[in-house]
Amino acid sequence: MSAELKRLWSGFWQLADPKIWIASTVPMLVGGALAYAHTGTVHLGWFGLALIGIYLIEIGKNAVNEFVDFLTGVDQYVTPDNRNPFSGGKKTIVDGKLSIIETAIIAFLTLAAAFWIGVSIAVFREPTVFWIGMAGGILAVFYSLPPFKLNYNGLGEIAVGLTFGPLIVGGMYVMLTGSLDWQVMLTGVPLAFLITNVLWINQYPDYEADMKGEKRNWLVRIGKEAGIKLYAILYASAYASLIVLVIVQRNPYWLLGFASLPLAIGSVRTAAANLNNLSRFIKANAATVMIYQIVGGTMIVAALMV
After folding, report:
1. Is 148 helix (H, G, I), strand (E, B) or coil?
2. Tens digit of pLDDT for each residue in 14-35?
3. Which residues are CB-contacts of 109 (< 8 A; sequence separation ≥ 6)?
4. CATH no. of 3-304
5. Residues 105-139 pLDDT 10s
6. Does the keyword field hold Transmembrane helix (predicted)?
7. Hey, how many other C-beta atoms are within 10 angstroms of the C-beta on 101?
8. Which one-letter DSSP state was computed for residue 56?
9. How far is residue 64's CA from residue 152's CA, in Å, rounded to a whole number?
């Protein structure tokens, strides 16, 4: 393999960042588990194709976010002492692994492939999926892309919560079963709060860079100290929504997610105590991701018990 191909391949995988696909894998598995619990079967072929489609959207979203944040200067404003695994996007353009044009081409190709998969599922499996998929795809693309630039205008947090919560859970369920009800969408709400919290705490390392680049997310709007209060509120909302699921669906297994509560309390305390100490603060970032995984895992189990 030539040096140029190695650069492109390395840049692509750095941009794709498969380790963060857990964000979409969890709600897809919850939706699949609910479908199996209600019907006794899951079509693995369609399930696998849907996984591929969502992962392609993830890559496309990363690519769009990467070149937009570079062009606005946000990624370039992240100083070397603030660079860490939770800061500055995927760093492919900043690191010289991909050009702006190459990143834009990756965005176009992956999103086009995801659209083709969505249309195929809608035509040959379940028409309703098209509209759910289009809603998710539009939110992913315009999360960063003009004219909406949702994450620059205080709507990014809502877009992420809606997409990685009710939309993906509901979309997977309706694709596998052909039907959808409000209780299935409700099941995605705890995940919506938790993935929003992952985004929220990951905005802290980029706070100064976002301010300088006029990326007006809600953390920039309300400030770091007030942001910790919202961080705690998002956790509280996630656990409260698990209780709502127990009441509505009469399934006590949703409470398994409370096993992560001590870790959540610890992460809030860590973040609050280290607002000016980034090396210690990012322990809260890591804990928030772990909590999402723990609660997601317990929700998959609980979904099978419905």
Report:
1. coil
2. 999 998 899 999 999 999 999 9
3. none
4. 1.10.600
5. 999 999 999 999 999 999 999 999 999 989 998 99
6. yes
7. 9
8. H
9. 13
